Amino acid sequence: MRNIVRAGIGAVVAVAVLATGLASAQAAGALAIGTCAAYGFAYDFPSSQAAQAAAMKKCGPSCKNIVTAKKGCAALAVDGHKPCGPNGYASASKLGAAQNTALKQCYQYGGKDCVIRAFMCDVKG
Fold first, then answer.
1. Which domain holds residue 68?
2. What are the C-alpha distances in Å from 57 to residues 46, 61, 62, 84?
């Protein structure tokens, strides 16, 4: 009986270790940015390249810029009254920092009413 209990506990521990390892491996995200406030995002991918490809696919052909976030966050800010006008984007370890930097860039490029259009964080962000 003890051997069965030990085997059961061992199986539970093994599953928990594997699940933890898989969660930590999924730690890359990307935010693709296109014209006129177009965007696509992907998070919790096993690599930056996979996240970038998924974000670009969601965004479409107008997307030319991409921001990666490995164990962090990314944000896109656009002028609320001119979505085809100024924008800013950034990545940082915390969401608030990424959003603040994106907003600052939007204003630096001439935005008058900048707002956060999109943001994403990966599993650790």
1. 2-121
2. 17, 8, 11, 20
Rounded CA gap, 22 and 49, in Å?
18
How far are the Cα atoms of 39, 47, 75 from residue 44, in angstroms, in the given order?
17, 9, 16
Q: Distance (Å, rounded) from C-alpha 58 to C-alpha 69?
A: 17
Q: In the structure, what pLDDT confidence band is assigned to residue 117 with cuts at 50, 70 and 90?
A: very high
Total domains present in the chain: 1
pLDDT tens by residue, 4-27: 544 444 444 343 433 434 444 567
Q: 110 and 33 in contact (C-beta within 8 Å)?
A: no
pTM: 0.74
